[in-house]
Design a protein that fits this description.
78 residues
Length: 78
């Protein structure tokens, strides 16, 4: 359900999001709350999927990876 042409971009985006953590400051030196990080990651993934016409990818990502319970799991694993 994800065309091969988008695999590299999608993997890069997921990898970037996986590395986001409130322990690491932003470029401006501030720390973001876990919910702010989740909000930004969700928005970025949604925008990417919408622009590329990847509705099935977004449905999978939003339900399986970009939900609050999964964000908590990601935060504990990093």
């Amino acid at each position: 359900f994800c065309p091969a042409a988008h695999h590299k971009q999608l993997l890069s985006l997921i990898t970037h999001h996986f590395c986001c953590h409130n322990f690491f400051p932003t470029c401006s030196g501030t720390r973001q709350s876990p919910l702010k990080i989740l909000d930004q990651c969700v928005h970025e993934m949604y925008t990417f999927c919408e622009q590329q016409g990847l509705t099935e990818v977004w449905a999978y990502m939003s339900n399986s990876w970009y939900s609050l319970p999964m964000q908590n799991l990601w935060a504990h694993s990093s």
